[in-house]
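Quick one: structure for this chain?
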Amino acid sequence: MLEARGIETSYGSTQVLFGVNLAAEENKVTCVIGPNGAGKTTLLLTLAGILQAKRGDILFDGERLNDLPAWERVKKGVVLCPERRRLFPSLSVLENLTQGAYTRNDTQDVRDTLEEVFTLFPILKERRSQLAGTLSGGEQQMVAIGRSLMSHPKLLMLDEPSVGLSPLMRSKIFEQILRIRDMGSIAIVLVEQDAADALEISDYAYVLEDGKITIHGAAVDVAANPEVRAAYLGL
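Got it. Here's what it folds into:
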């Protein structure tokens, strides 16, 4: 579904990504782990079209996306759930969710998607009139993921969904990521600092260090790699 080849991205004269290759398949979770500053968020922003790759190709369902702006990529099903949620705190839960459907004109399908989000996160239906800024961190993360689902993604990219959450809420979020994967016809790319949990729920994994992919493979194999165990799993 997604194939990134030789991606290089810079901030001005500072290069961050160096020839990154990555693939993601539908009905699978692909995680990207690595230290802070490795370029993980930059990679997602590049795939989403918020940053432009200086070199390389981004292919989605066989179509080259490099020249498409971010909103056009959303229309094609490439959706980013950003780090630290980025909600509109003075808008209600429902208003935040419907912002995710801004590229869609299929009114009934949008309503159906909203019901799917409420089924996935029942607490959001209860609190649909509550201001997003008054929710707990975990509930805000549910809104952020729900808003992304309102775009009807084929590729859902999640940037640090567990950041700032309690262990219990982190577990709930990871459980819901698996439920989303099992909803069908969706590929998930997960960037996550909690390497152990990310590897546990993922099918395939990449290790990004200093802007380069250093290790990749089936998640179970990456989790068993001695370097990964020592550097990221504390073993």
